[in-house]
Amino acid sequence: MTHRLTHLLRLDGYFGVMAWVLAALLFINRLSSMVKLFMALYLRQELGLAIETVGWLLSAYGAGLLVGSMLGGLLSDHVRTARLTAALFFVSMWVLILLGLVTQVPLLAGLLLLSGAVDGAIRTLHQRLIMEYCEIAQRSRAQALSRVARNLGMAVAGVAGGVLAQTDFRWVFFASAAMTLLALLWFVRTTWRRPVLVPDEKPDTGSGSRVPYRDKPFLWLLATTLLLGMAFDTVYSTLGNYLRDYYRLSTEAIGWQFALNAVLVVSLQIPLTHWGERWGTRRQLVAGSLLLACGLGMLPLGSGLFYACLSTVVWTLGEALFIPPLNARVMQHAQRGKSGQYFGVFFMSWSASALLSPMLGGQLYGHFGGHSVWLVSAALALLSIPMIYQATRPRAPDKLEGQPRRTVSLS
C-alpha cells in the first residue's frame, strides 16, 4: 500500500513530471475563479442589478468564451502554445483588476466579454499543453490530476471568496488578479523553455487532413457537450442566487457549498478515473449525465443546508464522471487531424453552453421562478444520453497510439 502511494505521488511516477507541473499551474490559476463563483452575487447584491440583467451580463462572458475557445485553438496552430498562454495570463490579470473598478453596465459587459475570451483561450490551450507535454498513456491521468488541482483551487477560492466578499466584493477581483500573476510567473519558470513531444511520423494524408466538421462522431460529441454544458453551467450562473432566495443561505454558506463540490472532486476524481479505465467512455458519460440530472433536478424538492449539500454530492459525482472522459475523447479525435481546430471547436461548443445557459436560466428564473431552472437543466442532461451513444460508437483504432514519441524544442 505504501509502495503504491509512493509511486502515485512521485514526480516521475504514475502521473509524470509535466502532469504535476501543469496541474500546479491550473491550481494557481483556479484560485482566481472566485470571481466567477461570486460574479452573479456581486452584480445583483452589490450593484443592485435585476436578475434578468445579471443573466445577460453573464451571457456576455459566455459569448467571450465562445469566441476565445475557437480563437485560441486556431492561434495555437501558428503560435507557440507556451508563448500564447503566457500572454493571455498577462491580459487576464489586468481585466480582473478593471472588473473590480468598473460599475457601468456597458463597460462591465465589454470587460466580461474580454474576460470570457481570455479564459476560453486559456482553457483550450491547457488541453493542448497536456497533449504536447504528456505521453499518450498518461494523458487521461494528467486530465484527472488537473481536475483535482482545478477543484482544489476552486475549494480554496470558494472559501476565500466568501470571506473576502463579506468584507468587500472588490477584494475578490484584486485577489484573483494577484493569483493570475502568480500563475504567469510559475508558467514562465517551469514550462517556457521545456521541449514539446511530437510523433516521429506524421499520420497518413487521410487521417492528417481530418477536420472536425467532417468527423461525425466528433459532431455528436459536440452536441453532447452543449447539452451537458448548459445543464452544468447553471451551477455557476444561478445556484448562488437560488440558494440565497429559496434556501435562505448566507454568502459565506454559499461559498462553503461551492467548496464542498471542489473537495468532493479532489477526493474522488482520481479513484473514479482509475476505475473508469475499465468501465469505458460510454458508461462513464451516461452515468455522469444521470447523476447530474438527479442532483440538479432534486433541488426544487427540498430545503435547508443539509439537502443542498446532498444535491451537491449527487451532481458532483456526475461532474467527476463525465468531464474527464469527455476531454480525453476529444484528444483522441484531435491527434488524428488538425488538433488546434478540434480543441477550438470543442471548447467553442462548451463555451456556447456558458453563453446560452445564463441567458436561459435568467429568463426562466425571472418569469417562472427558480425551481424551473433546475427542472429544465435535468431535462437537458437526460437529453444528452442519446447523443452519447452516437458519439461513442466503435471506430478504427488511432494510428498514433502505437507511434514512438520524441521531444522537439520550440524555443
Automatic annotation (TrEMBL):
It is a multi-pass membrane protein. Residues 18-396 form the Major facilitator superfamily (MFS) profile domain. It comes from the Bacteria. Keywords: Cell membrane, Membrane, Transmembrane, Transmembrane helix, Transport. GO terms for cellular component: plasma membrane. One of its GO terms (molecular function) is transmembrane transporter activity. It is found in: Cell membrane. The chain crosses the membrane at residues 13-32, 53-75, 87-114, 171-188, 218-239, 254-273, 285-307, 313-330, 342-360, 372-389. This is MFS transporter. It comes from Pseudomonas laurylsulfatiphila.
